[in-house]
Design brief:
heterodimer; A: 352 residues; 13 helices; B: 289 residues; mainly alpha; 10 helices; 72% helix
Chain lengths: 352, 289
Amino acid sequence: MKRGGWGDFFATSMNLWQYILKRLLSTIPTVFGALVIMFILTRILPGDPVLMILGPAHSSPENIAHMRKVIGMDQSLPVQFLRYLGRLVQGDLGYSWHTGNPVSKDLIMRFPATFELTTCALILMVFFGLPLGVIAGYYRNRMPDNIINGITVMGISMPSFWLGLLLIYVFFFRLDIAPPPMGRLSAEVSAPPVVTGLLLIDTLLNRNLSAFLSTVHQLVLPAVTLAFFNLAIIVRTLKADIIDTLKEDFIRTARAMGLSQKRVLFKHALRNALLPTVTMLGTIYGFLLGGAVFTEVVFAWPGVGMYAVESIQWLDYAGLQGFIIFYVFIFTIVNLLVDISYRVIDPRVQFD
Amino acid sequence: MGNRQTIDPESLHFKCHLFIRNKLALVGLLFLLFVFGLVIFGPFLTPYDPLGIDFSVKLNAPSREHLLGTDNFGRDLMSRIFSGARYTLLAAFISVLIGLFIGTPLGVLSGYLGRKTDLILMRIMDILLAFPPLLLAMAIVSGLGPSLVNASIAIGISYIPHFARMSRSRAINVRSMEYVQAAVAVGAPTVRILISHVLPNCLTPIIVQATVYTGYGILWVAGLSFIGLGAKVPTPEWGLMIAEGRQYIISGEWWITIFPGFFIMLGVTGFTLIGDGLREVLNPKLRVH
């Protein structure tokens, strides 16, 4: 068969679509299972939600029976579950009573802040993690590796919220070069009109340089905090792959041809060791989203993690559970995208 | 020739030798001994009542009277940290025990029996794994209500699939070994094969994992308490102490948050280093000669 023609292209892209479809279908049991768990948990909640809504003053038997009917709790559990699913499909996550808004609206409003923070942290991680991983792999069990190992072990051994507080103390209180840890924008700068919700982009679209700089200024400490805690994953994965890759024939060939050590390492070895690290990105992003909960609290960052913690403090379970479902949703999508892009980048990789 | 002493790489003596040679693991051991000392003797070493409020000394910096300073209620931080070791550490242990005692049998069964048991069990584990631990803990605590015990149960449940996967892969390896086949051939009951042949072979990686996960457990316990899903005030739990002192960091009262965090780090580093050391000792492939 002739290779490289249109037929070939379509065959490949057909496989890709089939793969995407298959991959999508495979997420269904996971998401469904997650929803079942969430549903069961809401039903074993201590305390009757009806009583919580009505309050002690209005809890006459008639009122309770009426309220039960209104929120559908007089139905059997399977019926309740189906209704719950129906509401979820419509994007209805219930009402948050500490903000007075629909939970889905709250989450969508706050997600850009979290997205900006986690993305910047991811960029920082990759920027520092790649060279550190390569160096650690190259100098395996020697001084540089030990130092890098020490740094990463420190990173995973300290609570991220504690690191954040430490950084605030040093850079805000002592050295006074960081802004007060109060959200995304300094109080002296007026916020740009919302276009994307990402302040880094919105301020630039608005050609407001001072607001842009303030955004960057506010972002540095939280992003560093979040990145440092997760640095170990990227460094360790990459290090293991570099060690394996350096044993390969083509590295020996490259060295035999007299290429410089730097070139061999960063061009040939890194490129070949990178793929397993790329597959980790989905997991890493999940960790970042989780870590963002702590970082956002410490830096009063108005993202979804902060929202979850506020919900906990207000005993607002609709808000908390909405956050969890939102998180599982985002996590699933990110993993899906990573897997698909992996497949697109390297067509040699065949998935079953 | 002939004079050279042969070393049995699997002997206990040699393993101890390797462990001692590994300086990092020794450092970890030291940290742990210290933290364990606090768990056992902590409440007897406290100069003050960990819950005793005294506003006349509130927010005092570390001094001779209060070596680690006092918090916003005038409570002595050293007393609080020392007596708080129990809460954080025990909660971390409970979570690992839950993961270990539920996850390992499930994994061994799943790997050894294979087929449908494996398929169903691993599907359930996949669902649990799809939840990042923090989320699972949040979901469970939102159902059971926030408390330190519920937080450790939640962390324990999130550990189950990890222990199950680890022991499953070992069980699959062992299943086809000759001595297991022989046991099957002579008609040994499955339960006995599992307990006396399959389980012992899973122990090595599981000990390492349990050690490392205890360290992470400390982080999770402290983290959940920090965001209000764990211990309640006025418990001197380390993560909760950081949460209570959080607002004072911007006015410069650093000791309230920095010291508890430092002890958390000590504990986590201890378990991580020991885990790494054990991994090297117990897994000959990782040894560097």
